[in-house]
Design a protein that fits this description.
- The structure is a homodimer of 624-residue chains.
- Chain A contains 21 helices and five strands.
- In chain A, 48% of the residues are buried.
- A five-stranded parallel beta sheet of chain A has the order 3-2-1-4-5, sandwiched between helices.
- Chain A has two domains: 19-462, Amino acid/polyamine transporter I; 482-622, HUPs (Rossmann fold), CATH 3.40.50.
- The first copy, chain A, is mostly helical.
- In chain A, helix 2 (24-50) packs across helix 12 (303-318) and helix 3 crosses helix 8 (215-225).
- At the A-B interface, helix 17, helix 18, helix 19, strand 4 and helix 21 of A face helix 17, helix 18, helix 19, strand 4 and helix 21 of B.
Chain lengths: 624, 624
């Protein structure tokens, strides 16, 4: 218990709920890491595709980043509105489900669940990938390092949302601070040098162009760059985690996250343009990441470079945390509607939806093991889910505002409609450009997940229909049960069972299975029956209990008893049959090996093969 | 079920018991394989130790074999008497226990159990070893082949004693027939050539002497040769497996087994002497077993040689069967006295003591895996147990006959006394000569096993003392129990539970744990309580049940309920507390994942933490 408390913190009472809530400053590390860390790989992914265009490729990064930023700002406004409209958490599942119908909600839910698992896996593997390009001799341990980080993230997150915010605050602000300094100084040099800054460390020369530009290439560049946008919906999903005033704090967090992301993306694009920095071949020997090139061009290779690169590695790995913060809230929302097991709605010892975390960790670990912890293999599966969910959420918001018809709803419909069209188009682009490489896996998993959720829902609905009881308690026709007592010999254990049986009914049946291996003879049994049971009961004026001796040609004890009970149940359709199972409880677990497990087996068999009118009464007898 | 029947045979009713019994002919493969197969490795083991003496070593095999045969014949007479005196099976455990006291019996039991496991492991690994010296490329698969043979032996033995005898009849008689032919023809040539027969294939020349003879060496040779005697007590242990007249049939089997063994050992020793056959270095490149040398010297290397060697391999591997036949009978005898779990006394579907077989297979498999299936590593642990048991059994018989004081008991005391002294001396020799090589492991295991058996016995005795009930049923002071019903909401499931509760008691307590995660509000609950339960009960003139709402600051549902039940039990020392656990039983196992397992957990917690006065009533509710 001590170690558990040390690792995960003491259990929190429900009354501490408010103290667990976070402010806008902690909201950034908790919900924003996925979005912010994309600054480290979004531009990189786009520039990598532009390598074949040589020096002219860098010129395209400006317009493409502009397009991405416009989409990002549209998303910002529409999610900001979503937060206002759904102060109890407006994930895509909720918004799409409430406005477009259950099926759209399930589609969004499945897409988002898959995407969150991928966020966790991609974030961890990208961080480890960056670490390995800095220290290549760690390469053989890739998967092990990934799993260690997964465990660390799990432990921190199991401590609760509040502690997570505190732990991740420093790396997040270090990452933001250093990158902003690089961008500021770089732009300052650009301005003072009239657009031709001199790099401190010159970036590698860009290779000559080997291909001409095409629309298909630009679309692929755009869709790669769009991976920078995943994680934007995280805040709207987690509004309830913020302290009062919740919506205001959540919107503040979202604003800060998007503002930082816009500045980072724009600044990186501008510096790439002015310092002539392009991506290098990730498979080549001279590979260097874009941010590493930029930082050394602007600041040189001193301690500042080391801190910047270090904080980038850390934030990439921690970006998985967004999944930890949001996946359990998503599964809880789905479970509340009855499409996932109810266990996802229960809060564990640290006021978290613990089962969501367990499932996320299991799936992420499985994915990391399956793909060996290599980011490149995971990336093609990624982002489709997020954009699908974005689209459904925006479309849902359009319907939502049209229903409201209040002041300013026209503008809101326009903003969300624009978002829906933009993200919808992006979904199509992303799915088309990545389909063969792996997006088909996601496209296949989504309907499977939906089918699963529908099956769960159908089960719950059926159980609910069967068990819901509109009428009050019926008091007529209440008879004591027929009590069946299996007995191997006369002992204190059977005496206790018999006394309890007499206290609840007068209709007793004692069942004995003749066994050549354990019985001490029929005479002894008959003697015990008369002397110990029948005579005292007759003296007390009680009705005779039935004594039933069963034969067992194949020596099993349980089967004849079970068959007798089932036959008795069939022949007495008006009565309850209470089977009394006496059980010796030993003092140490190993002592249980010395006794037959017939009591446990009988209980199990009766549960599995029993019927509505068979009740099991377990009378434990504790060894002194 | 079909496959199981095909593999292990259909279940046998107890009435078929007599048909499972075997005659003396089948008794030889079932109980005699261990003893007979030792002809293949006993002389070999002795001759290997004689290698350093060169040609003169072969001259010692005569006197040493004579000593071994004398000991064997003494054992034969004394075990023959044991069978007569203990017609229900007179293993060393029974004979030593009844005549020398429980501790001597336990010593014999522990020694024999260890030796039987070693018999199984050594038999299989020796057979596989012989196979591998014939086909060396199988070497890397040694352990796998050992385990496959173990599984095959298990399957055959699980079919019952009768089928085992039938299956093993052919290899046994093939082994005896071919070896007897070799001995007969060899001796014929010896006689016709006046003691100097010409070998068909000349055996390898014996190496020059490198050491002088010493008493210590001869003692070691003797103790190695004595391994040929293990398995002699098997028949006396298994008398009950023979058909009527049991003792007569058992003695016949024993006589035939010992007669064959004497002829084989004497014949092999004689042929070695006259054909100048010694052992070859088992580590050397030109290794050839003694029986292979003898057979090729007498018969040449034709088809007869192949059949002979093949049947030797087979019988070596099958010699493990003696352990399968006797170990379960031994553990049954021990369990009947309460020194091992009672489960060893129960007969399974084929009228076998199945659990003895399971444990033997598990231990043998473990031993084979631990020692990699290599015979040489196992041999030093072997035979000590058997000789210890022999000695105790003989000593026990001496006491037995002295108690009888009947006709001829003086002679019987002499025979068994001679046996006791001879086997006692042999035990000391075996233990001393093999102690460092591994016999210490056995010497250490025996007391551990005895301690275990004593602990088991103590447990059974305590339980028996606590549960034995000399007085008849007490009918005074029988009150209906207080019934506690945990209830989360009003449903058909809780309605059914409540109706059953009303049928057995008027003293009802309904317990609800307030849960912010699942409750639909306190008002709804209060409404349900009044409308659905209280009002109808009052109308029927029944006493009000108690309604208890429990708070749970840490959101667990079970702990507050459990604490309440335990507190209620303490405050009402005169009453039984019946806890009513309603349980939804789903139609498919996977559907259970969709529901909380609180019912199962509460049942488990109440069993573990409950007390004599707490009874659990499980009311299953079956989904339609």
């Amino acid at each position: 218990m001590q170690i558990r408390d040390l690792l995960f913190g003491r259990p929190l009472p429900t009354s501490d709920e408010r103290a667990e809530h976070i402010g806008p400053a902690a909201g950034i590390p908790v919900f924003g890491l996925d979005a912010l860390s994309s600054a480290a790989y979004g531009p990189e992914a786009a520039l990598t595709l532009l390598i074949p265009l040589g020096i002219s490729g860098v010129h395209f990064i400006g317009p493409i980043t502009a397009a991405i930023l416009i989409l990002l700002i549209i998303l910002y406004f529409s999610y900001s509105q979503t937060i206002e409209a759904y102060p109890h958490g407006g994930g895509s599942f909720t918004v799409a489900g409430e406005n477009l119908g259950d099926h759209a909600g399930l589609l969004a839910a499945a897409a988002l669940m898959i995407d969150y698992v991928l966020t966790a896996a991609v974030g961890i593997s990208a961080g480890v990938g960056a670490l390995i390009s800095a220290a290549p001799k760690l390469q053989p341990h890739t998967l092990a390092i990934c799993l260690v980080i997964l465990v660390l993230l799990t432990v921190v997150n199991m401590r609760g949302v509040h502690d997570t915010g505190v732990v991740f605050l420093v790396p997040t602000y270090l990452f933001l601070g250093t990158l902003l300094v690089v961008i500021a100084i770089g732009l300052f040099h650009t301005v003072t040098s009239h657009g031709h800054p001199a790099p401190v460390v010159a970036p590698p020369k860009l290779p000559p162009a080997v291909a001409a530009v095409s629309l298909w290439l630009l679309l692929r560049v755009f869709s790669s760059g769009c991976t920078a946008m995943t994680g934007v919906e995280a805040v709207s999903n987690g509004v309830m985690a913020f302290r009062d005033p919740t919506t205001k704090n959540a919107r503040r967090s979202l604003t800060v996250i998007i503002a930082f992301l816009v500045v980072l993306l724009a600044g990186i694009a501008a510096l790439c343009r002015f310092y002539n920095v392009g991506a290098t071949d990730p498979e080549g020997s001279g590979y260097q990441s874009v941010l590493s090139q930029l930082t050394s061009a602007v600041m040189g290779r001193g301690w500042f470079y080391d801190i910047t690169i270090g904080s980038i590695l850390l934030v990439l790995a921690l970006s998985a945390n967004t999944a930890f913060a949001d996946f359990p809230r998503l599964t809880r929302a789905i479970a509340l509607k009855g499409y996932l097991p109810h266990v996802f709605t229960l809060r564990g010892r640290r006021l978290l939806y613990s089962w969501g975390i367990y499932v996320l960790v299991a799936l992420t670990g499985g994915l990391l093991i399956l793909f060996g912890g290599v980011t490149d293999r995971l990336i093609p599966l990624y982002a489709i889910g997020a954009f699908m969910a974005f689209t459904l959420s925006q479309a849902g918001m359009v319907v939502h505002w049209r229903k409201q018809k209040g002041h300013g709803s026209g503008f809101r419909v326009f903003v969300n409609g624009l978002g829906a069209v933009a993200t919808g188009l992006t979904t199509v682009v992303v799915l088309t450009t990545k389909f063969v490489e792996g997006a088909w896996v996601t496209a296949l998993l989504i309907p499977c997940l939906i089918l699963l959720m529908v099956a769960v829902h159908r089960h719950y609905r059926r159980v609910s229909q069967e068990t819901t009881c509109p009428e009050p308690l019926q008091i007529t026709n209440i008879n004591p049960p027929i009590v069946i007592i299996p007995m191997d010999r006369w002992s204190r254990i059977s005496a206790k069972a018999l006394r309890f049986a007499m206290s609840i009914s007068n209709d007793l049946q004692i069942v004995h299975v003749d066994s050549p291996d354990t019985d001490h003879g029929a005479e002894e049994l008959a003697l015990q029956w008369t002397d110990k049971i029948l005579t005292p009961m007759r003296k007390a004026g009680l009705p005779d209990p039935k004594f039933i001796r069963l034969q067992s040609p194949y020596r099993t004890i349980l089967m004849p008893v079970l068959d007798y009970i089932l036959a008795e149940e069939r022949s007495r359709p008006d009565r309850h049959i209470a089977v009394l199972v006496p059980e010796l409880v030993v003092r140490h677990w190993w002592e249980a090996l010395l006794h037959n497990q017939r009591s446990s087996l009988l209980k199990l068999l009766l549960l599995v093969r029993g019927s509505q009118r068979i009740v099991v009464i377990n009378i434990p007898w504790y060894q002194e």
